[in-house]
């Protein structure tokens, strides 16, 4: 393995090692809460689905990229390539849209009662599962092209023009017009959700700023624990959105450049996919640190250290 392959393998392996257990932890924490408490609040349902989407992004893209970096090439046949790539696109889109939904719902939760957004506070929980099901259908419809144009191998080992070379699969577009149209559809769908979640996050920050100004005069001994759960949750959501904007901003910038060249080199695809999957590792860490339910479940499974007393020490001697 040359140095480029070593860095690629190490990078994707680290992401997978972090992403899989961290997202499984988040999912299992919320499922445990569902079994013990009988229900999940709206935010928890969104976060659980987000963790599942992140987990599937790792399985459908992070793991194949890691295996490819270690020298494994023929991972899939044509059907396997189509399933792997379309599932990656669907769950990547779900990761974007669920983060957007999370930021929108958090903005609605902390909005003043007089706000027009407050009217949606009861409607979103009622139609939440319908919304998530619609997002699955939406992202499949937006990415059906990858089913049509992806293959596992090339004719005569020659990479034709307008091809995305993933090393284990290839997406071959017939001509530049179709590539450009599909690229714009993908870019536009990402930008709609990214802009919406950014607007919601700015709205959340403004609400938190005005709220902090109102309570500025009531600072007392409660400085460390004076933040409300809504404030803490809002800051966690804003953190996720900022990270998402950074990672997927780089992803989409490389995607736009890819639309301007005839052949996309594998290194460029690797960098783009690295940033596209980086969020799947960072997101569950932020959720674990900031969400009380997940944090409490981590404390429950943490083994207790034995307490050594004077008597036990004497007995040991």
Automatic annotation (TrEMBL):
Organism: Polypterus senegalus (Senegal bichir)
MF term (GO), any: pheromone receptor activity
Gene Ontology cellular-component terms listed: plasma membrane
Subcellular location: Cell membrane
Similarity-based family: Belongs to the G-protein coupled receptor 1 family.
GO biological process: response to pheromone
Lineage top rank: taxon: Eukaryota
Residue ranges crossing the lipid bilayer per the database entry: 12-35, 41-63, 83-108, 128-152, 164-185, 191-212, 233-251, 271-290
Signal sequence, renumbered to the chain: none
Entry-linked InterPro entries: GPCR_Rhodpsn_7TM (IPR017452), Vmron_rcpt_1 (IPR004072)
Keyword set, alphabetical order: Cell membrane, G-protein coupled receptor, Membrane, Pheromone response, Receptor, Transducer, Transmembrane, Transmembrane helix
Pfam family, one: V1R
The protein, known as: Vomeronasal type-1 receptor
Domain G-protein coupled receptors family 1 profile: 22-287
Membrane-topology annotation of the record: Multi-pass membrane protein
């Amino acid at each position: 393995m040359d140095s480029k392959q070593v860095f690629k393998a190490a990078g994707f392996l680290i992401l997978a090692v972090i992403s899989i257990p961290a997202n499984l932890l988040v999912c299992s924490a919320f499922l445990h809460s569902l079994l013990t408490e009988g229900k999940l609040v709206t935010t928890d349902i969104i976060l659980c689905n987000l963790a599942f989407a992140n987990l599937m992004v790792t399985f459908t893209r992070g793991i194949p990229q890691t295996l490819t970096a270690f020298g494994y090439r023929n991972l899939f046949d044509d059907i396997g390539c189509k399933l792997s790539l379309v599932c990656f696109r669907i769950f990547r889109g779900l990761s974007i849209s669920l983060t957007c939904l999370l930021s929108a719902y958090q903005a609605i939760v902390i909005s003043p009662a007089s706000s027009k957004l407050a009217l949606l506070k009861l409607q979103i929980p009622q139609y939440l599962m319908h919304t998530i099901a619609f997002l699955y259908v939406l992202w499949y419809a937006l990415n059906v092209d990858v089913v049509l144009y992806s293959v596992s191998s090339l004719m005569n080992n020659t990479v034709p023009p307008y091809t995305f070379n993933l090393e284990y699969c290839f997406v071959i577009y017939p001509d530049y017009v179709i590539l450009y149209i599909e690229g714009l559809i993908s870019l536009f769908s990402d930008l709609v959700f990214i802009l919406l979640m950014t607007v919601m996050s700015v709205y959340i920050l403004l609400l938190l700023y005005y709220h902090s100004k109102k309570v500025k005069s009531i600072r007392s001994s409660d400085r460390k624990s004076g933040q409300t759960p809504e404030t803490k949750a809002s800051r966690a959501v804003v953190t996720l959105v900022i990270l998402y904007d950074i990672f997927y901003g780089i992803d989409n910038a490389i995607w736009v450049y890819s639309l301007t060249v005839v052949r996309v080199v594998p290194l460029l695809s690797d960098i783009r996919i690295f940033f596209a999957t980086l969020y799947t590792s960072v997101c569950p860490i932020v959720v674990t640190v900031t969400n009380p339910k997940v944090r409490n479940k981590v404390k429950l499974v943490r083994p207790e250290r034995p307490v050594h007393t004077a008597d036990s020490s004497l007995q040991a001697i």
